[in-house]
Design goal:
The complex is a heterodimer. By secondary structure, chain A is α/β, with parallel strands linked by helices. Chain A contains 17 helices and 13 strands. In chain A, helix 10 packs antiparallel against helix 16 and helix 13 packs across helix 15. Chain B is α/β, with parallel strands linked by helices. Chain B is built from twelve helices and 15 strands. Chain B starts with a strand and ends with a strand. The chains are: A alpha/beta, B alpha/beta. Chains A and B meet through helix 14 and helix 15 of A and helix 2 and helix 3 of B.
Chain lengths: 478, 361
């Protein structure tokens, strides 16, 4: 059967029925997955790598890509119907998938293999596979839940995907095929699980720098990875499927309002998904607020350094400012988390606060300089000559004037940090942006989560403006 | 009231260079005195004033105010400044406060006067300087003269015992100088003790009980206004009060650039509007340097012009000479006669280091 692939306006009648037909097409995949690695070797197609499969799906629906490669179980029949896509063909290759461990952690890797073998022997492996990747699997059902250990050193897990059926979040709990295996491992070792959601590239970094003990999320075994890491025995071989837009599918058309209502229900109410938004909002607010607070204080120190009499102190301050100006915030965050503080056991949100505070301090010291230095020395002299002490002169006369100049700049800096925190997902913090991602990786719906997150950021920015307006000194001085 | 002795102030550059602005200032200031501090720029007038209230702390010497050494460690400087007000060249009004707030602010915060009382006092002071109707506007909307009057009112609000005026009219448009000076004059009439650094000579002469003429980091001359202005004892004072302009040439020997000197004398005459004296000056220089005093090298030649009296002098100074070069043997009488005919007056006088011939032209 022929498949009609639509690409950005112009109609192209293209038949894609096998891997050979992919030649010359735009293929969407999730970065770092086995399909990404597999297709990278083919030079005759245009591979588009997305951060998650929700984005990849969206690109297919928008006509940015022609074909989407993903595990056949990810987009189950229900989702395929929902979004009007279908399987063009199934991949011929199978990808043995396992859990990945640090090179020096053979004990945990062997324990994992032992658990898998036990599960195969007692039949539980067959049971959960039938449940998650068998014919009967349906996303919206409720899932088995193995009681968790609570005592002992936790096994730190980097979940590199948040998509059913491998590992995914429901009401802030992890479920899925790999999670069931890990829960059995947890029970065998009498160690609780500590699961954090990383994107695939970050998960590998986290394992490398010892921040986690195991990476799960459908990790495909490659020779390169085997040189760097240890794997458990493969517990399953996944098969790829190539999805295309199903032009014959009847998209249910119940009107825009009806669709929006349905989308809101699916993205926010089902499985209490709005909780991610609330928690993410709290995380975003917490990190921004603390970073602004700490950064403002550090900024005072930096400003004092820039005003120092000693040349080397001034040089140090300007070197610091140059360094911060020259390094992207994300890179600084990654370096701090995965390199500098990797072995320190500091919680990620604290590292994020420090990272953003370091950036904020640089901007803040600039703001202090521009606003304080703009006040002529005559104002200070005028105060001193009347008999005010230095301190009184600063707080009664110079500071109120500097505040008026500096607040708009300070507000812009706060807004920039608030929006800048949207990158903390890279170090496994579930902030507001990440909350949107988590919802999207369950619903594959781009519009509602992104729109909601956008509106909330907008309101936060507005709120900052309002708060700082309150801090503006009144015109009345006496 | 204030006794200043051996006050000195040296500024140090970050790269080690130093500049001594005040060398050795000594004076005594009594209550009720109105002292104008005059002198050429760069001689330390403002620095001296700013040293008195320690805005520019001196580097040596002592200042005793009401029996207390204010340079002593731990001396409460802000207390001193409360009784020693200062009015600045650039007003230094608080830009974020209204005129009335500027005047009320320090009494409220420092003297802890109630808002009501401060407002009444403030309005009274503004009325005194003629700006009551501007009470609620911001300084940015005022003219320079108005700003300075507010600054004076603000200073008075602290009820100071002494007021230091640091060039109060230098930043003003000439049309506004009068309104500020008349306020100061009024204060002088009320018996306020004041030290005023100023370039307004007529004002200084009229209002002051005493003049400090500062020159090269010291009080070069200190006396009653009339004496300093009409019969200055020191030549530098005289040069200053008579507003004498000068150009000096060091004639080292035969190789001196005489033509260049002519050019500079010409330029000097044109600059001070005495172009008609150019030819005479040229002639006289020629005769004196090439003929009469040709054997007296090295010497210093100076052309001076007093803007006050309009007199121009050509001075020829020779070090180590005991009698006038005009009386020396071998001076050509014909040349001497030409000189006599060219100038209005010839003065021959010994100086501390030699002998000087002054030709008035």
């Amino acid at each position: 059967m022929g498949v009609l692939a639509c690409s950005s306006g112009q109609e192209q009648s293209v038949q894609i029925q096998s891997e050979a037909d992919l030649s010359g097409h735009r293929v969407a995949t999730t970065a770092g997955t086995c399909y990404d690695i597999d297709l990278s070797q083919r030079k005759d197609l245009e591979l588009h790598r997305f951060n998650n499969n929700a984005d990849a799906l969206q690109s297919l629906l928008n006509g940015v890509t022609d074909v989407l490669v993903e595990d056949e179980t990810v987009f189950n029949s229900q989702i395929r119907k929902e979004y009007g896509i279908k399987i063009a063909f199934k991949g011929t290759q199978s990808f043995p998938t396992a859990f990945m461990f640090q090179k020096g952690d053979a004990a945990l890797a062997q324990a994992c293999t032992a658990t898998q073998n036990r599960m195969i022997e007692d039949g539980s492996m067959a049971r959960i596979k039938a449940y998650w990747v068998g014919e009967k699997y349906a996303d919206e059902e409720h899932f088995s839940h193995i009681p968790e250990e609570t005592e002992g050193t936790p096994i730190r897990v980097a979940a590199a995907t948040a998509t059913a059926p491998i590992s995914f979040l429901v009401e802030s709990d992890w479920y899925g095929l790999e999670m069931d295996i890990l829960r059995e491992l947890s029970r065998d070792l009498h160690r609780p699980l500590d699961i954090k959601y990383y994107d695939p590239a970050s998960a590998i970094l986290a394992l490398k720098s010892g921040l986690v003990d195991v990476v799960s999320g459908g990790v495909f075994i490659t020779p390169e990875r085997e040189q760097e890491f240890l794997f458990s025995e493969p517990y399953h071989a996944f098969h790829s499927a190539f999805f295309v837009v199903d032009t014959e599918a009847s998209r249910d058309s119940g009107g825009v309002l009806q669709a929006l209502k349905k989308s809101i229900r699916r993205n926010l109410l089902t499985e209490k998904r709005w909780v991610y938004i609330v928690q993410g909002l709290w995380e975003t607010l917490k990190i921004s607020f603390l970073a602004i607070l700490l950064g403002s204080v550090l900024g005072v120190g930096l400003y004092a350094m820039a005003r120092s009499r000693r040349k080397w102190v001034r040089s140090a301050a300007s070197l610091y400012n140059g360094f911060i100006a020259g390094i992207p915030e994300l890179v600084l965050l990654l370096i701090l988390f995965y390199v500098v503080f990797a072995g320190s056991g500091l919680p990620p949100d604290l590292v994020a606060v420090v990272s953003f505070a370091l950036c904020f301090a640089s901007g803040a010291s600039d703001i202090y300089a521009t606003s304080l230095d703009a006040i002529p020395y005559g104002q200070t002299e005028g105060g001193l000559a009347l008999g005010f002490t230095h301190r009184q002169t600063f707080f009664h006369i110079v500071f109120p004037q500097a505040l008026r100049r500096g607040l708009p700049l300070y507000k812009a800096q706060c807004v920039s940090i608030l929006k800048g925190t949207s990158i903390v997902g890279y170090i496994a913090i579930q902030d507001l942006t990440r909350a949107g991602d988590i919802i999207r990786s369950r619903t594959f719906d781009a519009l509602v989560p992104l729109l909601l997150v956008t509106i909330i950021y907008f309101l936060l920015v507005w709120l900052i403006g309002l708060l700082l307006k309150l801090a503006m000194p009144s015109k009345k001085v006496l | 009231m204030i006794t200043v002795s051996h006050l000195s102030k040296t500024y140090y550059d970050p790269d080690g260079k130093s500049l001594q602005v005040l060398k050795d200032v000594n004076c005594e200031i009594h209550p009720g005195e109105v002292i104008s501090i005059i002198g050429p720029s760069g001689t330390g007038k403002s620095t001296f004033l700013r040293a008195l209230n320690l805005l520019d702390p001196p580097t040596g010497g002592s200042i005793i105010v009401d029996g207390e050494d204010i340079l002593k460690k731990g001396y409460p400087v802000h207390k001193l400044r409360q009784k020693m007000g200062m009015v600045f060249q650039n007003f230094n009004l608080f830009d974020h406060m209204t005129v009335l707030e500027n005047v009320m602010f320090a009494p409220c915060k420092i003297r802890k006067v109630s808002l009501e009382e401060a407002r009444e006092e403030g309005m009274a002071l503004l009325r005194k300087v003629g700006l009551a109707e501007k009470a609620d506007v911001y300084p940015a909307t005022l003219s320079g003269g108005q700003k300075q009057r507010v600054a004076i009112a603000r200073c008075l609000a602290m009820k100071p015992e002494v007021i230091l005026f640091d060039e109060p009219t230098s930043a003003l448009d000439p049309t506004m100088v009068g309104e500020v000076l008349s306020v100061i004059r009024q204060l002088a009439g009320e018996g306020m003790t004041m030290l005023i650094v100023t370039h307004e000579m007529k004002f200084a002469r009229d209002v002051s009980t005493r003049i400090f003429f500062m020159y090269e980091g010291v009080i070069h001359e200190d006396g009653p206004a009339q004496q300093v202005f009409e019969a200055p004892r020191r030549s530098a004072t005289k040069a200053f009060v008579q507003r004498i302009r000068k150009e000096v040439f060091e004639v080292e020997g035969r190789d001196f650039d005489f033509l260049g000197m002519h050019t500079r004398i010409n330029r000097f005459c044109i600059k001070y509007n005495i172009a008609e004296k150019r030819a005479t000056a040229d002639r006289l220089c020629d005769i004196m340097l090439q003929d009469i005093m040709a054997d007296c090298l090295p010497m210093t030649v100076r052309i001076t012009f007093s803007e006050l009296s309009g007199e121009t002098f050509l001075d020829f100074m020779v070090e180590g000479m005991e009698r006038s070069p005009l009386q020396a043997d071998g001076v050509n009488p014909a040349s001497l006669e030409t000189v006599r005919s060219l100038c209005k007056e010839i003065v021959e006088e010994p100086t501390t280091r030699g002998y000087r011939v002054k030709l008035k032209i």
